[in-house]
Write a structure and sequence with these properties.
The chain is of the alpha/beta class and 293 residues long. Helices cover 28% and strands 20% of the residues. The chain has a single domain, classed as 3-Layer(aba) Sandwich (Rossmann fold), CATH 3.40.50. Bound molecules: zinc ion.
């Protein structure tokens, strides 16, 4: 009796806490939305896909603590808590989480999660990684073979603050602290390290979330253009991203119209999107003032 009791107690505890045993929940069921050309018109195409959590990575792009644009920084702060809840749910089901706060990974030097990325065994990529230098890291520029020009004019940097525009700079120092870094997560902003981490785990499916969709979520060396070019299956969480778009620039409308246009661009030219609800079972995230989808 005494010897079996602890085992029994553990079994009862696990039974009472199903969230701890959710690796048995099976695959993620993702409602993927993309856009294809049908009879000369761009049309939305929706499919349902099952992705095995243990073969899926979620990459958190540039969810920094600060931003040169106060409106952009406020929206990241608004999204960080819900994103953390999404990551907790996905992690509990077995997904691998990579935190990619570009140019600030030095803040995490010496942590096991940063070392995990650094120490992953080098595996050659099937095609060379993009190398064009910008902002201290490689950048995968817009690729005319795969996409049209962006549907929003972000040539002014995209500050959408009312009145005086914010001065551009790079005030970020780390990832937003509301996003927890799990014991088994990794931290990197490097394309090769990302590739090595995925290879080590046999991961061929990559989910992107974070900011900003017209810039880093497409162009960073761990982001959509590079991952697609390396042959990964990629998807975007469309309610957990944002753009740098000032609606005083073409095509106008609201900042959130710009977000929707950019999501459509990605769905047309790069990868499908889905809502965080597919991972959390809760309503999708929505910025204050944004319309419901
Ligand atoms: Zn601003």
């Amino acid at each position: 009796m005494h010897r079996t009791f602890p085992r029994l107690a553990a079994a009862l505890l696990l039974a009472a806490l199903p969230s701890l045993a959710s690796a048995d929940d099976g695959p993620f069921t993702l409602n993927l939305r993309s856009r294809g050309v049908v009879d000369g018109r761009v049309e939305v195409v929706e499919t349902v896909a099952e992705w095995e959590p243990s073969k899926t990575a979620i990459i958190v792009c540039d969810m920094w603590d600060k931003h040169w644009c106060k409106s952009a920084e406020r929206r990241v702060g608004e999204m960080a808590g819900p994103m953390n809840e999404m990551l907790k749910a996905a992690r509990a089901r077995g997904a691998f989480i990579i935190h990619a706060p570009s140019t600030t990974t030095g803040f995490y030097d010496g942590t096991p999660q940063r070392d995990r990325a650094r120490n992953a065994r080098h595996v050659p990529t099937p095609v060379p990684l993009a190398t064009s230098p910008r902002w201290g890291t490689a950048w995968f520029w817009i690729d005319a073979r795969h996409e049209s020009v962006l549907p929003i004019d972000d040539s002014d940097g995209g500050c959408d603050c009312a009145g005086e525009k914010c001065e551009q700079g790079d005030p970020w120092t780390r990832q937003n602290a509301a996003i927890e870094i799990g014991e088994a997560d990794a931290i990197t902003d490097d394309g090769q390290e990302t590739w090595n981490l995925l290879a080590e785990r046999g991961i061929d499916r990559v989910i992107l979330c974070g900011v900003h969709l017209n810039m880093c979520v497409l162009g960073r060396p761990f982001a959509i253009r590079q991952m697609k070019t390396l042959g990964k299956q990629v998807a975007l969480i469309r309610d957990m991203t944002d753009t740098m778009y000032n609606p005083e620039r073409p095509p106008g409308g609201t900042h959130f119209d710009g977000n929707a246009l950019m999501v459509g661009h990605v769905e047309r030219h790069w990868c499908p999107s889905f809502l965080s609800a597919d991972l959390t079972g809760k309503p999708p995230f929505r910025f204050a003032g944004a319309p419901a989808e």
